[in-house]
Amino acid sequence: MTKIIGLTGGIGSGKTTIANYFEEMGVPVYIADDGARKVMQSEEVIEKIKKEFGESLFENNILNRAKLAEIVFNNTDKLAQLNGIVHPAVKKDFDLWLKQHDNCEYVIYEAAILFESGRYKDCDTIITVTAPEEVRIDRVLKRDNTTRAQVLSRMKMQWKDEDRISRSNFIINNVNLKIAKEEVVKILKILNIKQNQS
């Protein structure tokens, strides 16, 4: 049976870079954010978002994600409402994807809010990607059209690194990419040894 490796880390930790490296090593990767973007274009999810958040977030039936983000990242209740719509749809999408990869030993499920969403319970192994806060802020400022205050507000909505680390099997400190990549190789070796022993 295919083992699910949960890959998580806070905003700006570089977990997508690490996910891409796992993919280069031959492990299929499901990016939950991409899954969420996909399901948020489905009619069913659009209708639910309209009902909860109003028509004003849509232009020609296209969701203004920036407006929605502004609402939910400043309001925990609204974020919980949105997650209640999106998470079940992403789970359904991932389950279909998983069926297409049932011949693989491992797949990666990459999600920033792996613990917050409860999806960690479906994972056989969990890897947390970390980086110092200032490095993370800097990465997000370079990557997104955003402000330091907005990045900090999003960080506040996510778990702290120490909470993730305490529940993870492996930690990748992603400051130096060469060293981080070596960690990926090491983790895969350990997982393959375990797989062969079971």
Layout: helices, strands, pairs:
Elements: E1 3-8, H1 15-24, E2 29-31, H2 32-39, H3 43-53, E3 58-59, E4 62-63, H4 65-72, H5 76-100, E5 106-110, E6 125-130, H6 133-143, H7 148-157, H8 161-166, E7 170-173, H9 177-197
Parallel strand pairs: 1-5, 1-6, 2-5, 6-7
Antiparallel strand pairs: 3-4
Quick structural overview:
By secondary structure, the protein is α/β, with parallel strands linked by helices.
Number of helices: 9
Structural class label: alpha/beta
Largest pleated sheet: 5 strands, parallel
Q: What level of helicity do the residues show?
A: 55-70%
How many strand units? 7
Strand composition percent: 5-15%
What gross morphology would you assign?
globular
Averaged pLDDT, please?
92
Query: Major sheet: order of its strands?
Result: 2-5-1-6-7
CATH class category of the largest domain: Alpha Beta
Radius of gyration: 17 Å
CATH superfamily of the largest domain, by name, is P-loop containing nucleotide triphosphate hydrolases
Spell out the key features of this protein.
single chain, 198 residues, alpha/beta, Rossmann fold, 2 domains, 5-stranded parallel β-sheet, two-stranded antiparallel ribbon, 9 helices, 56% helix
Q: How does this model look, in words?
A:
This protein is of the alpha/beta class and 198 residues long. The chain folds into 2 domains: 1-28 and 107-198, Rossmann fold (3-Layer(aba) Sandwich); 34-100, P-loop containing nucleotide triphosphate hydrolases (Rossmann fold). The protein is 56% helix and 14% strand. It has helices spanning 15-24, 32-39, 43-53, 65-72, 76-100, 133-143, 148-157, 161-166, 177-197; strands at 3-8, 29-31, 58-59, 62-63, 106-110, 125-130, 170-173. The strands form 2 sheets. A 5-stranded parallel β-sheet has the order 2-5-1-6-7, with helices on both faces. The chain is globular. The model has no long low-confidence stretch (mean pLDDT 92).
